[in-house]
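Why does residue order matter? Because the sequence determines the fold. Keep that principle in mind as you read this record.
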Amino acid sequence: MKKKMTSNASRNVTFISSYWFNKARFKKLNFRFKNKSGRGSTGRVILWTKQKTNTSARSIVINYNFRTTIPVFMSTFTLTPFSNKLLTLAMLPGGGVTYLPTTYKTKIFNFWNFFVREKEWWRIKDELIACYVALIPMFQKISNVEAVPGLGIQYVRSSGSFGKITSKNETTNSAILKLPSGVRKIVSTFSVIMLGSVSLKNKNLVKSTKSGYWRNNGRKPIVRGVAMNPIDHPHGGRTKSIKYPRTPWGKTTKFK
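Structure:
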């Protein structure tokens, strides 16, 4: 579906839509980015601005710590603003919904199978999306890897990236993961991984080579706090020489 043109950058922008996706129903899965600057040493907000939020774009909460033995239904794809991450809206059997990372093996209107026994691997390997590190063969493309079981996905999460398991040790229940950067990490064999590389491998072709790239997408430029006066920002005024944040009245907040 083609997006309505609002600027030069959105002239040929398209997005994926589905009748299963209803924004009004899943508002709780969205949040706003808030500027955390402008606080004193006590945590009190002392920044005076005309607008509380710099942007009205809502980001989607991604579930990076999701484990279930029951297949869930993949209803639709959605694209996160400004980060170009393709997510899948999963419908849980109990009636809940959540956003999960997407790999090139994910298919909508299909069931997502998670953990299987080792003897069942080759029977449903084409339908399997996520499993334990101990169940997959070595040197296969994997993504969204847990370092410690239950800690959540931490490695290989960016678009188009993938890693590989280079060795396993059944005595210590550990494996060596090769990251896209070439760095090797030790992970548990009971950690969750997803098969295949992360979707949107063409993200690296999008480059912000001009200052108006984000400006045309709705993001306004941010003025440095040290370039302001104390009434506008705690870093304003002579904070370069004094090095302490200040209140809107020019008083230091260091010893409050």
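The radius of gyration is 23 Å.
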